[in-house]
Every structure is written in C-alpha cells, then in structure tokens.
Sequence to fold (601 residues):
Amino acid sequence: MSLSDDEIRQLDGILGHYPDRRAAAATAMRIVQARRRWLSDEALADLGAYLSMSVEELDSLATFANMVFRKPVGRHIVLVCDSFACWSLGYAELRAAVEAQLGVGMGQTTPDERFTLLPIVCLGACDRGPALMVDADLHGPLTPVDVTGILEAYR
Amino acid sequence: MNTLDTSGWERPFSRAMQPDGRPAVIDAYVAAGGYEGLGRALRELQPPEVTQAVTDSGLRGRGGAGYGTGRKWSTMPLGPGAPHPKYIVCNGDEMEPGSFKDRYLLERNPHLLVEGMLLAGYATEADAGYVFLRAQYDRPRANVERALAEAHERGFLGTDILGSGFSFNVQVHESIGRYICGEASAMLNALEGQRPNPRARPPHMTGAGLYARPTVVNNVETICAVPSIVRNGAGWWHSLTESPEGGTKIYGVAGRVKRPGCVELPVGTSMRELIEDHAGGMLPGYALRAVSPGGASTAFVPADGIDVALDFDSMEKALSRLGTGTLVLLDDQTCPLGMMLNLLQFFAQESCGWCTPCREGLQWAASLVEGIEAGRGRPGDLELLADQVWFMGSDKTFCDLAPGAMQPLESALRLFHDDFERHIEDGKCPYPRSGSDAPAMRGTLW
Fold:
C-alpha cells in the first residue's frame, strides 16, 4: 500500500461529499496527484482498491481526463491556451517564446523538473488572449517578451 | 403583485459587482438586494409559483442551447410521490472555445450563483446541488466555495433555511478535464465517477438524471438570472429590454478590438453596438471580416451581417445561433481557413470517441482543411467537406458535439468560399496569420 496515512485521511474526508466511493474518483485522483504530481501504476492500483474500483476502470477515467497525469511532470504546469481566439491573437508567437525559454516542446518537462509544458483547450479568457496558465495562475494578454518574467517567479 | 422598488436594478447580474473586479462578498451582495429573492420565495411563494415566474420571464438556457428554463423545471416531479433525492446541477464547465462569460460571473458575483441554486432547488423541491466547474477555474472555485461558506454562516444554506423548513446543500465538484463533460448527460456520468460519455435520451434528465434521480442541469448564467427574476417579477424582467426574450445578459467581445471584455447589456442589443460602442471598434489597421457569435459551435456571421439583435430568435434568422453571446472576431489579416482548422482540430481532439461519425469524421474534416490551408488542396475537397457537413449534421450522431462542429464549417464554406477556392488554385495561403500551428500534443495520451 503506497497511500500515506495523510493521503488516506484526506481521502476519508471527501467521501462524505459523495453518495458512493466511485463518485469520489476524480477528486481522489486530484488529492493523490497534488502530493506526488502524477499517478504511477502503483498509486493508481492502491487508489482503485480504496475506491472499490478495478484499476482498469480507474485508469479509463485517468487517461480520459487531461488533468490527471500518468507520466512524471515537473513542479509547475504551464498550460498554453490554443483556442481559436488566442490563436488569432498571437498563440504561435507566445508558444514559441515559452518553448524557447524552457528549452522544451509541448508535452515535455525541463531537465531540472521545474516545468512541464502542455497545450490546453480554451481557458475561458478569450478577452485576455493570448493567455496561459502556470499552476493556478492565469496570465494574459501576453506578448512574447512577457514570458521570461512570468516564468521566473515559479521556482 | 410586484410592489417592490426596482429602480437601480437595470443590471441585475452586475449590481453587486465591485469596481476593482474582486468578488462581491456577502455583505456587498446583501446590500445590493441579494438573497431578497430567496427570502421572498420562502415566505410568499409555493415552489410551482417560483417555476411559473421563471417560465413567465421567458428565460432560456444561457449555456447556448436556449431551452426554456421554466419549461425544464416544470418537468421535475413534485409532491410526496416524487422520487428523492432530486438534484440541481450547475454546468460551470465552460470549455467551449470562445466562451468566457461564466468565468466573469463566477469571479465577480459568486453569491448570485448560490442564491440561484437555492431558488432552483426550492422550485423543484430538490435535495442537493452540485456546481460542476472545469479544471483551470481555480479562482472561480475559491470564490464559490467562500460564498457557500458565507451563505451557510448566515443561514441561507443548509438545514431549515431562514426557518422555512426548506433544506438544501451545495457541493462544488472540480472536473479533471475534457470538453465533453460540458454536455449535460456526460456531466452526470462524470459526477458519478463514470467515464464521461454522453447518455442516450430519452429518458430526460428531469425524469432520470444523476443516479437515475430527477435532475435539472442549468448553465451558470441561467442560474444567476433567477434571483432577480424571483425578487422583481417576470414583468420587470421583460421591462429591461425590447427583445421578446426579456432581461439582460453578459455579452463579451474578444479579438482585435480596442476594449475586449465582458459587459452586461439588455438582451437583443445589436452585434454592431456591442462591437463598435462597448468594445470600442477594431484596432487601427484591422478590419472586421466575420464574427463567431457565441462559442466554437456557432456559425460565423459576416461583417455585413452584424446589424442583428443578439437574442436566440434573431440569431437563428441570421443563420447562426446566439450560443453563449461571447463574440470572437475574425479580422481581415487572419486566414479564415486557419481559424476553421483550429476549430476542427479542437472538436476532433475532444470527441469522446463513442460514435463513429464524430470520432472518424471530425479527424477527416480537419485533415482536409489542413491540406487546403497548407496548399495541398485538390478539386473536389470542397464537395467532400460539404458532404461531411451533412453526414455529421443534427440527429446523425450520438450527441451534439459533431453537429456543433459542423455549424462553423457550414458557414465557412458559405461565407469564405472564394478563400477556399483561392487556396486550392494557388496552392498556398495568402494571409499573414495562417497555417495550422496545430499543437503537437493533439491526441497524445497524458
């Protein structure tokens, strides 16, 4: 069992919000991922047992969702909005600046494990496009020269 | 019956909003007349009377479908024989590209949502509510959770609310992603911990929804409209606008305009007024080419068609849909095929894969447009695309995702026909902003 006592305490705490264990699956995966950044096969198996779900059932949710990570990711997640609004307002230039700054492309993690760069469906901030998010922070509208200053703040 | 003073209520969605953009906390909300609709309902109105007020207001689903809200509520079974628990689910998934009004409401006026959920719950005799929020709405989620805690503290939420005997609780659920979760029946599967494929209908969700219990699913803005309607009455709601649809709405403009953003205006405000007056018109050096009026699944409206009222019926006559009412503008230096390609790539990526026309057809349509945009178009491609518009049209797929994708494509083939022809004939794209800078990650498992 790889789930820590603290994780199990947190998981027990949310079960009461849902009519059954399975309904807690999404939130449960978030809780475990928050500490570990991503869900290993072992973590998923343990979580499946906790939720009374087969590992296949849980993995079908995990791999369908775009915010559950089944591969290692960095300490900070950079999401670059690729909606048609941001696309028309300078997405390509913004993305190129982020990739140049980080030295990695979409779907990759910097060697120091500081950042993982991912595309994201419309952030609902079209009036602030082109936009990106770093962890829970929304940034926009941005020009390529803004990128360095923004990323520097995330150690 | 309405003897309340309603002066100063011309902008019910924005009334309590703070000038600095921070969320209205409970004191500011109550000072602006907040929770008076709830108080009135619990004191004076039977549940069906609340539904009747919403029906009389003409309020239609602000997520974009435009279904009558009161009509939906009135199909919930009431009384001692009704199955329980019954649920209210607020759709705050807002993942359709070009939709950005629910974020605005959730960030600035979260108590409006809480009061609306309570009223929807009271009207339908529901037991519990869920606010389903997309991932990435961290700030909206924090605001809603704070508003729920404040409402609980003041006795607006929980057991025996304001001594009325009505009890109701609301839980926030943060999605782990994917656009299809915004489809109402897929959302219920997501809430149950099932894979979020859409469900077959019938049964309708008000008959068998979450856990097969009667469930209303309403968009954030729809729910936020309810408190002022219940407080001030349907007649007042209709007095706010000349549009037969009544009320006000959060509109938005994004693109190369001077003042992009969201604004509350009477329903039926013209598209031209929204773009030219409220958004300040186009930036110097850019001209308007077309408008995506309300999300990625709405048909483009050409620049010479913007003298149209932004309400559901008028937009249908303009061969499009109101959708979310948040405009994304196509300017004259951006390739319309490039924009269309971006939209198709989005829909192809977000197909849940359940039904064949959507899973296979969207990829095919995207690859055809990609080829034309890259200069590899062939004679016959446009006829093939037109066929796909028909094959993936309404009622040929399991849900509305692919038909939604076909609405902009149908309009693009109609409005930008010369551009498509020129791309094929010249073998290249003539625009400064072009191409499919298609994200390399599309379709990659994470």
User: Anything to note?
Assistant: The radius of gyration of chain A is 18 Å.
